[in-house]
Write a structure and sequence with these properties.
With about 350 residues, this protein is mainly alpha-helical. The chain contains 16 helices and no strands. Helix content is about 75%, strand content about 0%. It comes from Spirosoma agri.
């Protein structure tokens, strides 16, 4: 079998090996739910890079029966990214039922094409897939990813993860425009999705590094399991409360578990155990509870008459309006505006009494 290899194909091959290796490690050497979702995302992305490699290396050309192998599951990337970010924040993972449907349709589409004779595949490529369905495939995946990025940002508690989501969002906005630009200005025989071909392997490699650096695989999981069995002392609880209450660390929108741990001189695993076992809450739940109480206190003091509700929320430590509205509604059962109106009515009734 003749395989054409240039620097681009060699890099794709390297990313494929890296992606498959990291996927296997994340699946079999960690108990973290977030890393399991990251492994699924890695697997889907790596399969797509395999398709790029088979195309650019000439394997498809010399083995035409391989055309339309079911390697494209790009409509799963958005839901998998969302569940990874949400699981990493310690939130329960739930998908709306309709998020399953696009990738099931996509998988069935390529599976049916795979078993077709080559003449049928060639006709379908020329008359249907090249002018129509590949664009539906591409823009459907892009739309799901952009929606997932929008839904994921409130759960991105780490600064590096927020930067990654922002960068990925910018990339996919550009990627949406790119085929239209290429179709208008490039020759017909040039690739219409050139940017995606070049950047996706880099993204796979970056995700593999994230999995290796932040997963810590079995060692961290075994350490965490051991730590969770140790009792929380009153001194440890007081340490966390001192940092959050007295030092007002909850007002820092960039506060992370690692930053809190560094401030009180403990490891992130120890602080996570203290919060989970000592307060029966996750890190995000504990910090957001203090932020919500600060907002409610200032609302009751009448600050909402002088400062916008969003301004109060940002000063209390919330990083965005979306996160604040969601957490406030989950905590109080009211939207911020409804709560302000209700508080004003209560105050008027008390004054009248």
């Amino acid at each position: 079998m003749n395989v054409y290899l240039d620097l681009s194909n060699l890099f794709n091959l390297f990313c494929i090996v890296q992606g498959l290796t990291t996927t296997a490690l994340l699946f079999y050497r960690t108990e973290s739910p977030a890393n399991k979702w990251l492994a699924w995302l890695m697997a889907g992305l790596t399969l797509q890079v395999i398709d790029y490699f088979l195309t650019r290396s000439g394997v498809y050309w010399t083995h035409k029966w391989l055309y339309f192998l079911p390697l494209f599951y790009s409509w799963s990337f958005g839901p998998l990214l969302y569940t990874y970010v949400r699981a990493r924040a310690g939130q329960a993972v739930s998908w709306p039922w309709w998020w399953y449907m696009p990738v099931l349709i996509q998988g069935l589409f390529y599976l049916i094409l795979t078993i077709q004779p080559f003449d049928n595949k060639a006709w379908f490529w020329i008359h249907v897939h090249k002018p129509f369905t590949r664009y539906i495939d591409y823009y459907g995946a892009s739309a799901l990813l952009l929606y997932a990025i929008y839904r994921s940002r409130p759960f991105a508690t780490d600064r590096w993860l927020r930067l990654l989501l922002n960068g990925l969002g910018i990339f996919y906005v550009i990627a949406v425009i790119e085929p239209l630009f290429n179709h208008a200005y490039l020759p017909d025989n040039w690739p219409k999705f050139y940017l995606t071909y070049q950047v996706l392997p880099l993204f796979v490699y970056a995700l593999a590094l994230i999995g290796l650096l932040y997963g810590r695989f079995g060692k961290t999981e075994r350490l965490s399991s051991t730590l969770t069995q140790q009792p929380v002392t009153p001194h440890q609880r007081d340490q966390v409360l001192w940092a959050i209450q007295q030092q007002h660390l909850y007002k820092d929108p960039d506060l992370s578990l690692a930053a809190l741990a560094k401030y009180i001189g403990e490891s992130p695993n120890v602080v996570s155990r203290i919060i989970n076992n000592g307060f029966n809450q996750s890190f995000n739940e504990l910090i957001n509870a203090y932020r919500i109480e600060e907002v409610k206190r200032r609302m009751a003091a009448g600050d909402a008459d002088r400062v916008t509700i969003l301004g109060i929320a940002l000063e209390a430590g919330f990083a965005s309006k979306t996160t604040f509205n969601r957490v406030f509604k989950e905590t109080t059962g009211y939207t911020p505006k409804e709560y302000v109106k209700m508080s004003q009515i209560t105050l008027r009734d008390d004054a009248a009494t």
